[in-house]
Each structure stands twice: as C-alpha cells, then as structure tokens.
Design goal:
Layout: H1 2-17, E1 40-42, H2 46-55, E2 62-69, E3 75-76, E4 81-90, E5 106-111, E6 117-119, E7 126-129, E8 134-143, E9 157-163, E10 174-175, E11 181-183, E12 189-192, E13 207-212, E14 216-217, E15 225-232, E16 244-249, E17 255-257, E18 263-266, E19 271-280, E20 294-301, H3 308-320
Parallel strand pairs: 3-9, 7-12, 14-20
Antiparallel strand pairs: 1-18, 2-4, 4-7, 5-6, 5-8, 8-9, 10-11, 13-15, 15-18, 16-17, 16-19, 19-20
Length: 322
Amino acid sequence: MKLRIIAVISFLFLIAGCDTNAPVKEDMDPPRLPEPTEFTVVEVPDSIKDKVKARGEQENAVPELIVESPKEGETIESSTVKVKIRIAGDLKGYKMGKAEDGTGNHVHVILDNQPYAAHYMWDEGFELRNVTDGEHTLRMFPSRPWHQSYKNEKAFAIVKFTVKNGKANEAKPTTDDKGTKLADAKKPEGTDVKDSNAGDVDLSKPLLTYSRPKGTYKGDDVKAIMIDFWLSNAKLKGDGGKYMVSYSINGGPAKMIEKWEPVWVSGWKPCKNTVKLQLVDKNGKEITNGGYNSTIREIRVNPETCPPDIQKQDLQKEKDTK
C-alpha cells in the first residue's frame, strides 16, 4: 500500500514538472553570440591590387631616405624637434604629397616606440612637439598611400638625439637682422607626442619597428587589415635568416611571419582590437632590444559600434592631439 501511495505522489510531481504552460521570465536576456576569434590570412585585397597597377613603376622605386635634421647625437634645447628629410635614389616617379582624398606617398616618422606620424610634405619640414627632456630615437621610412612600407636597404633611417631644457627655446617668428618681427613662423606638418624616452636600444642589434595596423578602420577596409613592419639587422627564416616575427591579436595564440612582407588578416571584431608584434628566435623567444622588439597597439574597427564610454574617450584623444 505504501509503495502505491509513493508511486502516485511521484507521478503527480512529474506532471507538475512537465507543465508547458509554466510562466517564462520576460526579463531574461537573449543568448549572446560569441565574438569572432578566427583570424585568417587572406590575399591582398583587390582594391590594393588596383592601386598597385595604377602606380606603375613607382612600385619598383628604390627610395633612399636622407635625414638632414636632427643630426645623429645632436642636443636640442627645445621641446619642438624639427625634422627635415630628403628622398633620393631610383624613385621611378615616386613623389611625396597628399592628394585631395587625403592619401599619398609619405614617410612614417616614429619617435621612440610611439605610433608613427605620417609626413607628406617633406619639402616643408615636420615638427614633433612637446618632446620631453632626455635621449630619444627617431625612425623613419617611406610608405605608399595605403601605408605599406618600402623595404629596400637605404629606405630606413634611425637617429639618436637628446632634448635638454626643452622649454628654453620655443619656435620663434621670422625677424630681420635688427630683430624686428616680419611674420609669424609658418607652422609645418607635425604632431604632439606623448612622454617617452629612447630606452636602452642598440642600433647595431636586430631591431623590429612596428608600423601597421594603426588607428581606425571602417567599411570595406575592415575586411582585410594589413600587418606591416620594418626589420633592421636581421633576416627572417623564409628569407634565409634565423628570425621570425610573431603576431597575436586580442591576446590570442601567436602566429609566425617567416618572410618580410605585409600580411593581410580578416576576422576582426567590432570596436577595440589589440595587435602584438614581436621579433623572436627559432624557438619563439623574444629577441630583446630596449623594449622595441615587442610592441602592442590598439586599433578601432567600425568605431560606431563601440560603447558610448569608449567613443567618448576616443573623441577626447582626438582633441588632445589637435
């Protein structure tokens, strides 16, 4: 009898548990789809192939970058460092300048290990403003309109200089020989820079210079984003050397680049992405050199998808650099 009662009670509980009309919580959040994490190396985009074709012989240029200022080892008593360069060599029509659409041949100017600034009007000079006291390095190389660097031997230049008493001599207006003001100094291209110093970098040792990706990507540009860099005093494994460049996106597994050429990657998630580049040996161990051979940059992909607080931070950064 007891067994029969227990069986009936169990059956009633089972029916209650299977009630399909049980109320559903209306405030339950819909399940979130996982963010894409599969990054894939893809071919050069057709849009870039078209640009290469339209440039003709410029693609085969062998530019030589000559730094006129600052001089190697120079001490500058100003927080504004004036950069003056020349482009020589077998240029095959390569000229610096900015077109109406804002693109053009230019030089990447890198103070210490900060993100580069693009310098288009080389005949007018370039300024690095608010440079802190201390020793600094300046790395520069010519680039195409889509920021792919030229990689011939003399295209790269690196200079060490020192800023001392930086606020002692700011930019001055033009004067005659009696000191009478003639005109305000023409403000050349330039950028405000963050606090940094050279670090213990040895210019004779293997050196990796991070170039791309950088900044903001929108629309069709997010489908394939270029990873590019400059390599000094070293050869990669696929070019007959013993080194590799590893890249990691958003903290994911490191992948190896074995030939010195751009890599185009798809699969980027909206808003914030991070990219880490390292120069490593055959075992994947970093080759250290003053902190320059391991660099992390943050980029934005379709920034309108970012949360409001991040969009606000980005707007503030833009204001701070103007």
